[in-house]
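Protocol step 4 of 6: record predicted structures for both targets in the notebook before any analysis. Target 1:
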Amino acid sequence: MVDHRPPVLNVANVLTVLRIVVVPFFAWALLIDGGESITWRLVATGLFLLAAVTDQVDGHLARRMDLVTDLGKLLDPIADKLLVGAALVLLAVLGELPWWVPAVILARELGITVMRFFLLKYLVLPASRGGKIKTVLQIAALTLFLLPLNHLPGAVTVVAWVLMIAAVLVTVISGADYVRTAIRVAGDHRRGATGPQSLTRHAAATGTTPPDPATD
């Protein structure tokens, strides 16, 4: 039988690994001179944006070129959370974000990731519309906060805070939506309604995608 699975070493996975490799360099650039160097702040911002854009590119390539692998599905969310988590925590360390911001966002991300693993056998939970908006807001807000705001007009700081507050709100709301879906799936599972019809019903009601039985 011919194995049609894509090779593990493909361009999409290589880009994902590169995103992970960029994170320590981003952190180093951000922390130089206690975050006071304009030049290194701009370098850190550039590395952050490069990794964020690469996230979109590797996902597009994986789908378009049929390069989706189990390794890629494992590494992609890890790369995302490392990048965003590093930016949030380091900005808090520098005193430029209150600690409750990374605490709320990272608690949500970790909680949903754990929940996805538990639900994987019954229902695939792809990024919802709220999840995608959350990601865009987080990247936009963090990009502005990474800039040397002390040397920019005050309006930029105001916009950065508006985006960050919006990101936190959407992060919490989209997380609550995922939890609601998880509770429904768990309820059906306890009642024994875990077949394709049940999963399809959940998909229609929640905007999620049931797993392909052939790959379950």
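Target 2:
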Amino acid sequence: MRKKKRWALIMAIVMLVLSVPNSMIQAQEIQSTQEFAIECAVESESNPLYGFNSETSTEVTFESAQQTKVPETSGPRLENFDLGIAYLRNAFVNRETHIEFGFYCDQPIDRAGDVIKNALFVHTKNPIEGDYLKFQYRQYKVTRYLVASGSRYCYLIFMDVVYMTDSAQEAAVSTAVSDLLGSLGINSMDSYSKIKTIYNWICQNVSYDYAHVGNTEYLKQFSAYGALVEGTAVCQGYAVLLYRLLLESGVDVRVIPGTGNGALHAWNIAELNGVYYNLDSTWDAGKDLYGYFLCSENDFLGHVRLDDYRTDEFMTLYPMSPKTFEDKEKTTSEETTPETIPETTPEETEPEETTSEETESSTQETTPEGDSSVEQPTSEQETTPQKKYPEGLALDENGVWKYYKNGEICTSYTGLTLYYGTWYYVEKGVLNWNYTGLTNYYGTWYYVKGGRLDWGYTGLTKYYETWYYVEKGILNWNYTGLTNYYGTWYYVQRGILNWNYTGLTNYYGTWYYVKGGRLDWGYIGLTNYYGIWYYVQKGILNWNYTGLTNYYGTWYYVQKGILNWKYNGIIYHDGLRYTVTNGVAKYM
């Protein structure tokens, strides 16, 4: 009888082991690799607007690494740098004051502190990340260990942060932002109207917090919470609020730190028609006539940027308009439009997965190839088609817009041409108002809608049975991530919709679960990403979940969103008691 019980127990253990996926076993084995701490760095930093020389750093290299104990972290160890940064950024968004985690990498990172900081605050265009985080903490202190872990390395991070606001105040900001933008009717406006309406509201409703000037312990004055919820702030609060509201409205914007008339100051730049303009809502607050609204650099007197914000790299990413924006420029553009007949916009349809190949005739435009190394048109190239009249667009005697070259209609030309600042699509010498789709110009693919190059369009477009990703009017071969098209989120890989992808992808700091090229909002369970098993809840990686989850008939223990192979203990789930052994749970 005892032999039968013993044999049954052995078989149960064998079945349990066999039920665990092989990749899970491999991930578990990684955790047991022998490790040694190589070096330790202690760094602290204050917010950029508190002072320019606010960084301190101490670094210690251990001479006898194999005798240096590796500290334990209460947080997870992530498989790579990107996942580590996503975890850290999520902690900042949630205003966590103490953060512990780690991430693996193949090689030590040169100037790791700067690399991590820059990645944490990178401009993701998510309204609650980027500059919104960068200018909403007061200071942080971080202790960072570099650990040799088998053939790889691991950085262990221990960080303490002081924020301008707490999570409850940020929740109040989010509610107030939603209510304000809804009341202003922002969604129905063009970009200029969005900028002007939001700028007007801030200048008319936020007052300067003179009561706390110089009191750096009163942190709300530096925050969007102070500006929006309490109605009073200093320049940092003004700038961060404008950043939040414009990004929520779909307008790209940055916070620019520097000096105003020699004192520490912050303002914004915002994108309009492909270039950026300066805005200073602090200095325009309460005024009837604005002096710092959509200004060029030359007209933006008294402002000097910090060095990092006037480098060639930064100015290339955010090209400034050579002249200050005027309302009449918009009117002039409309008056010079060569359109004389109503435009028609072809209806877009939801992407469908195509399995059959279409044979292209010799008259069809060549399908774009994924060569991201093709050079962008230079300014000289862009103006080549429109050197002088009669070359370019002109009305014929029947009121039809046609493309002329050397005084004659050029029926051989199909492509883009410039006319009074707007690019139009010409097909066989005639402006085609009905065309919507991609077209190639000097090696770059542009998106045309209703005969015009649409600089404002970001999303998917279908071209010869393949769906491509367009960003601000240009096919972006470098983009990998999610995009929304008619209410459904699709997964794009290197500029092309990938119907075959199933797994996790990062979008504005949040990890989503994709199945067959579409974001699967209904999925709840585990998924493997680079050897680590993560817990997904309704399509989103849930870093906050701790408990049991069932995966193919076996129960596993998840801690803060990651399957914990080291956990042993008793867990209650739905009123039932489970014994957890090495992360695998069994009902008692």
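Step 5 preliminary note on target 2. The chain has four domains: 35-163, 170-326, 379-476, 551-588. The chain has a mean pLDDT of 82.
Proceed to step 6 after PI sign-off.
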